[in-house]
Design brief:
Layout (H helix, E strand, L loop, with lengths): L8 H24 L9 H19 L3 H22 L5 H21 L9 H25 L3 H20 L5 H22 L6 H33 L3 H14 L1
Length: about 250
Amino acid sequence: MSRTIPGKTGNLGKINRILRFISFVSSLVYLMTVRAQPYGLSYAVKGTCVAAIAMIVFRTLRDREGRMLGASLLFSSLGDVLLGIDPEKLFTFGLGSFLIAHLLYIALFLLNLKRPVMLGAARLILLAFVIASGLVLTIWLWPGFGSLALPVVLYIVVITTMAVTSLTAGFKTPAIAVGAMLFMVSDSLIAIGKFKRPFAYGAYLVWAFYYVGQYCIAMGFVREKIVHQAVKAKKFNPAVRKTKALGAEELS
């Protein structure tokens, strides 16, 4: 069960708001300076965006799931830094870092899988679309993979699985699945630009989908856990429920 810090939600919320502000500003600066990159420490600005979100997660969820989610965000941040330093020479290392991040997401989503799996029509349609998209992307880009065919195909399989598990986990917070699919869209655009051909405003679209996706996954999961605790606490202690609800408000 996820744990927050009882009795300190005010301080927790204040520091989290500062971290969220740092994340937002860093993301905006990075987006506005895309054409000027690379410049001195541009990779640090890029890495700060998701690293700050990871700090919010570590501070808010003090259990195994919180550590898994925070670690996934940190590996994503490391991937951002590596690709920001040298997207050509460090591409494989950056890919590996994001691969670990996706594997952690998959494990986290599977931990929250509700059995039996019950999917409505909308989720089934999205599920089919995600799987078909991963397959079509692989076939379309295959001629350009060259020597990177094995790691890239493995990555596509993993990120597709990540999006699939976000849909099948049965989260009540839609932002988690939405974020996972946006993350997949971002990585798909990167693959198209690298293995097929660059396209107009590609860097802007990649970053926008990626950052919003990561934010939705992280904050959606945190909210899911805090609300879940509030519902359980209601049965035993109304005062605890009020504290948990306050924590959820301060994350919004």
